[in-house]
Records
---
Amino acid sequence: MPSSPDPQPSLRILLVEDDPLDAELVQDELRGDGLAFDAHVVDDDIGFRAALDAFRPDVVLSDVTMPGFSGFHALDILRAAHPHTPFIFVSGTIGEEAAIDALRRGATDYVLKGRLARLASAVRRAHREAEEKRARDHAEKELLRAQRYESLALLAGGLSHDLRNILQPLLLTADAIAEYPDESLRKHGELVGDCARRGLEMVASMLSFARGARVAVERVRLRVLFDALAMLLRGSVPRGVELRFERPGDDIVLDGNQTELQQCLLNLCLNALQAMPEGGTLTLAAEPATVGPEFFAEGESSTPGAYLKLSVRDTGIGMSDEVRSNLFRPFFTTKSDGTGLGLLSCRRIVTNHGGYLRIVSTPGEGTTFELYFPLPGAESTTGETVEVPRGRGERVLIVVEKAGKLNMLYDTVTLNGYEATTAQSSTEALQKIAAEGVPDVLILDADMSLMSGERTLAALLDLDYRGPVILLVRPDHLPDPDGLPPIERIRFVEKPVSQPLLLRSLRDELDAASTQ
């Protein structure tokens, strides 16, 4: 036999009434309509205030006039103490002016005692609307809190970049000193390296906290998340747009932070609505997905396995290649009143959850944002320990603007068997290539002021450079591989640069190039 539905939870109803017969009549009417409730009756100021604290009603029903007390006075007390609790006048008579005044002062509804048949439906509706408003206010408060953290994240991102530039040469120096035979010098090098690593950990901690990566992790039920989004979007869907929520089953859960996930999906949904000025369909769906090694882009950590794919799909105007290439550039926006930080925030949230963001868009046909979040069982393929190899006299061109960082990289490369040439600008690098010939491998800083890394790579192609490139990038500002020139082999190495990782990357790329 099918199981019976869960019983409806009882409402706590505070009844302000001086006539016991009328109080009983009201309760009988509610019971007769099938409403489950617990009632408490008061008829004066002291009893009403005490009941608000002890009984904590879900709904207040009140007569208008009573000896020594009034419903309007009860309404004022309730609104001062509990502004969201519904208040319904139940009176024998109430004039038009009194009814208007009651609603203006915060009453939810009024019902005449001669028409009690609609009282139960009025109570149900008032309670439901109050619950929805509480949930909406909570969601908006959490969203504002997350947006404040986003502003802090931008500041922290700039500071972390500057601090990394200061600490990175210390790490490279410590790695170089570790190769010296003098034990006293090696100990000093260990001290320098330890201090640099501690400083970088502090930078990472500050940046992680500012970006919200340390918010509480909880078990998020996808159906609850989708229902909350549907409620938040209810008043934002324009005419002509159909909202489709392919709600997942109750058993589908995700480990993460519901506030951040809700912020991310809400942002994508609002963007999708604005992309359909002539109407269309907005679809939010969830489904399991298995991700293989071919899914991951160059420079992404490869973690194949089981994922949950969330899709936000619209049938709007779509995006051109130019718009797609700039989507995650801070302050880039196609809206007259936009900040350009929304999608940057979405990508940050997905990344903080260990996930990946993919975009499929065709002009005139719509856009789909696909969010992949790892499920238990995904196994990382990273973290293997490989012995650091030495060079065999290959020519390396190092292009970095900062003199201190450039010198450290030069020492690292030359002390490990490579023949290095340096340049502090892209222009100088191109001049050296024209005069001395193309190198076997290029180490290039992606963040240069006079000529960007992307433009430098494009110029290298014009000089017939076909070798591998080691691109030094900030972990919070990875280039889009689709936006880079068609260099056959590009390896991203995150800053601050680890000497073993750099040397392994050099050897791997040179060995791969020699076999082609």
---
Amino acid sequence: MANTPKPKVALIAGAGPAGLTAAYELLKQTDIVPIVCEKTNAIGGISQTVQYQGNRMDIGGHRFFSKSDKVMNWWQEVMPLQAKPSKDDILLHETEKEFAKAGPDPEKEDRTMLLRRRVSRIFFLRKFFDYPISMKKETFLNMGLMRMMRAGFGYLWACVHKLPETSLENFYINRFGRPLYEMFFEDYTTKVWGVHPSKLGADWGSQRVKGLSIIAVLKDMWRKNFGKKDDVEVETSLIEQFIYPKYGPGQLWELVAEDVKQMGGEIRMQTTVTGINIQNGKVVSATLTKEDGSTEDVNCDYFLSTMPIKDLVPALKGIEVPSQVAEVAAELPYRDFITVGLLVDKMKIKNETKLRTYAERVPDTWIYIQERDVKIGRLQVFNNWSPYLVKDYENTMWIGLEYFCTEGDELWNMSSKSFIQMAKSELAKIDIIDEKDVLDACHVKIQKAYPAYYGSYYQLDYVKQFLDTIPNLFCLGRNGQHRYNNMDHSMMTAFETVDSIKSGNIDDKSVIWNVNTETKYHESK
């Protein structure tokens, strides 16, 4: 009797959206066995759900919406959408009414997506502005006559005097005019990146803001009143609703991880890839280091990396890495992220919109804090992402204060106690809460949350060209490509990687690197 051939192995570094999607698709489409190695104790990467005292926290905020039908269908294959509520009652529907009476039941967690209304606003001048900026009466009143006139003339000037898009600053000015850029983009962008927008590349804007502009806002207003209501035809920043897992994004990725294991894959937690061993130009194995410091070499036929390129390049063994490649990789910049979760009796800000909300609470999923006198960048209201994120939905509000920093700086090194006190004081300072209403708090730090677009990023092509000479090594996901991808784009890099492996076309990686770079994808279905 002939020996059964040993199945091929794909070793995957990272159990975030890209790594888990790749593992899932390999098991569905091929006979390749994935081994996923995750260096932390959390599934989902930055898309994890952090639990604290019965409350759940979405790190960074994750709307489940994509212009890709494949991604939308994939999500709902894992977690089907619940029965759709009436179109006028998306935010406060029967699920929340029943939940407020009964509270969460951990024994009844199920694979269900909720339909949510997207409400994101800017808090500036201690007032709310729509995001993106709308042409409503409230916008004009909040800005005041002089600011509004400056904004209008600034936009008209920008329409006829285009700046070369050599920086993110010029990118924003071309689309909104200098006064609106200075009011709503300059300070917030500096908070996020720690670098002035004049020092950042325009590519970040083309990826994240895509086709958003004053013209896009006006087109959206026309569409709402006279045109089609299909969100797929709308700029991603303008969508009005999205789907969302009942218990946060981490729930979906935890379910995917369980599916991967049931289908025959392997997930190794608190296991770091510390060496990638190459022979004759191909990856043959990887050295894995466990939490206790012990190591193991695992043979593989393919290596899929979602680990930061900064960590990937020095881990390569058995191949000569050009000095320029090593230097560019070592100097790639990142921004790190800190969230403070605050459990409060109530917030001082109230619902002054036309939307129905429970107990007249603000309807926002997140609020961009544009105030110059505080360090906080964004505020999440977890009650509005899903009522199931909050232990006592009826009587408390669970909010997340987001700060951007760089590992080793003053914010990163601050003690949890001091940081929480600073966060509480900042929200009280801008009249969003009263400190005496804070019931509990937690402090969460995330490393390398955002690949940054300055410094050696502009020599990244040297690194990509070198990595592409290793045919069975694939770079995917946000950190794997050093690209600020959304969750759906990270998943699409996994789809393309599996397609390449399945077809045997592993020499040309361009289709994988090109996800989220094509204008056609940005602007149409």
---
Amino acid sequence: MNFTKSFFASVLGSLTAFGLLFVILLLIISATASIFNASSGSVTLSDNSILNLDLNLPIVERPPVFDEIQNILGLEDQVIGLPNILSAIDIASENPKIKGISLRSDFISSGWAQTNSIRRALKDFKSKGKFIYAYGDVFTQKGYFLASVADSIFLNPAGNMEFKGLASEILYYKDFQDKYGFKMEVVRHGKYKSAVEPFLENEMSNENKYQISSLLNDIWSTLREEISASRGLLPETLDEIATNKISIPQDAISSRLIDGLAYEDAFIEKIKTRLELDKDDKLKKVSVDRINRTNKSYDASIKDRIAIVFAKGTILYGEGSESIIAQGVFVETIEELANDDWIKAVILRIDSPGGSALTSELLWRAIEKLKESKPVIVSMGNTAASGGYYIAAGADHIFADPLTITGSIGVFATLPNAKGFLDDIGIQSESVETHPNAIGYSPYQNLSESYEKQMKRGIESVYDTFKQRVIDGRNLSSKEVERLSQGRVWSGKQALDIGLIDGLGGLKDAIKLAAEISEIDNYNVIEYPKFEENLENMLSGITPSIHNKNRLENLLPEQILLILKGTQANVSLPYIQTLLPFELIIN
């Protein structure tokens, strides 16, 4: 018995010691990574180098806080932040030792707006008289759009590429709900025909087809114009190619979409030839991280600062995280920035389809208070729609990419109801109430007429408030905002034409304007929110690759996914939502 106790005590002691050692190791790695990153400016480059821009990685708006630790331990696929990419291209364009860029974008994971911002940076790079060579084993349509900016594009002889135009596919759930008895109870303002129709109909309404078609055609026109200018092809020719498709690699050459077929080793030899290197000379490649470390990212002698607040993900009620926008950490951050005299301007970088109406209003209010002390500029990412637009509407200036999805000014509520399913399996729900409406909403009973009426009143009130925020923020008439609202989505280019934004551009343009408005020439750029650096957060970041969406999720409605995410994130999910009407994936 004593032996057993001693044995388990020894095991427990060993495990505890190992755990403490692991914690200490993580802290040492964290400190080392911090020192390593803080030593910016100490890296030197060789003459005749190229920037190795491999974008076949998960690309995120902001790198995870503990990305360095994950990479050092080899426990996570590398994740690269969009600001890091743009910074590397910008630095490379000014560094005389960098002669060109080797670009890979076969399966680029960024959204259309993010991809376009990278493409703009590459165009600026070329304008400095430097070259870009692109290579792919495969080119997705988005990957090709980015690669088309290159001076020369090469495809693997055994590879393939997409060039087919744009499409968006939406699933409809009415028959599924009727068959299995699990449905979403929908309460909406009477005019929002397309907002929640996947739960009410079996097919797309004409109104919805029109708005999605308008969006896709506008985005395609931007892609076509950019590719046309880069490749010297007529827009009409590109439409013909998209219609006829690319079946084999040789089609890509004959249509002049690419410049040649080559294996990767032959591609490297072509770059060497461009650099006038001998065959035996080693190609000097510089990574994104390395070139970023050639520039000092923070100057302690400069007190003036511009803050970038990254607001990424669904808007939910709760504390918030790097992938969830909630009032907890975000309102606290905004209030801190308002009281920080060194912060001269705030840029709100939004990439969100919206979510909780209540949280959107709380964030809007915090931003309004912030505007009393310093300018607030919005930079929209891939999506800033519904609640994402709500929190942007009051900003002093709004930038969007031409390919950003925005607008969707509308409100609705969806409530899960399992009564039909429970009836089928023999489960009944009974309730006892002190008052006629005491039960309120229950997922096990049909919505009562009085509760539905109550929800409609709430939705109409939120919708009126939402519209008023847009009226005041954008200086538009009530009639004009009503015409632009009702849940309709717009591209960034369309949003500029109708007055929902102020200009087309990316994060770099927002920073430049913030400095001009604040009348500062020298400044540091600081990223927010600052998430607590504790062991729990370290370990929570050490997970399998996060960029590939679970295939099962592709079959689930956005509202059901929101409920699952809300449960997992320990946040509350108010029913009234300012959310994109459906998950709009453009392929």
